[in-house]
Amino acid sequence: LQTFRDDYQSAPAVLTRPYPGVEHLLQTLSLAGIRKGVCTNKPQAISDFILSELQLRSPFGALVGGDTLAVKKPDPAPLLLCAKLLGARADQLLYVGDSETDAETAARAGIPFALFTRGYRKSPLDEIKAAFTFEHFAELETFIRPPVSPR
Predict the structure, then answer these.
(1) Distance (Å, whole) CA 144 – CA 31
(2) Which end of the chain is less congested by CB atoms within 10 angstroms, N or C?
(3) Orientation of helix 77-86 relative to helix 100-109, angle to 10°
(4) pLDDT exceeds 80 at position 145
């Protein structure tokens, strides 16, 4: 484990790439004035470095890492802190994640959860409670910003 941590800390962004559609979604949501934050169990400094290296840090108004508080996800405190830093109430949020831990965190915080089905999870999809499941980020954009009906 220590060897992994040392290797990861020495070059955390070398093999990291955003999923297809993420950059477009972030840009679209930013243009629409939708606030975004990151809540992760990765250390905050490494998360900030990765987002900066990928040129994805600026769309996020908050970043809460696994070492920001004394507790980590699935405890809801990091997610609720992220909401507070964004100036948002829990009923204004959608938590997007890819794991059972993310789903449990959202449930414990009372926040709707959207599950990215191609991410990091161990359980079958039907065992993870989510308000929305998606396999491409364009689908998530439609869920967040439904198309306007013509008049």
Answers:
(1) 14
(2) C
(3) 70
(4) no
Q: How many degrees, rounded to 5, is the angle at CA 123 between CA 134 and CA 141?
A: 10
SS3 at position 29: helix
Model pTM greater than 0.85? yes
DSSP code of 68?
T
The upper half-sphere exposure of residue 56, i.e. CA atoms within 13 Å in the direction of its Cβ, equals 21
List pLDDT tens digits, range 22-66.
999 999 999 999 999 999 999 999 999 999 999 999 999 999 999
Q: Could you tell me which residues come within 8 angstroms of residue 102 by beta carbon, excluding any fewer than 6 positions away?
A: 73, 95, 96, 113, 115
Residue 88 Ramachandran class (φ > 0 left, ψ -120 to 50 alpha, else beta): beta
The closest alpha carbon to 93, from 35, 33, 134, belongs to 35
Judged by average pLDDT, the poorest of 7-11, 84-88, 136-140 is 7-11
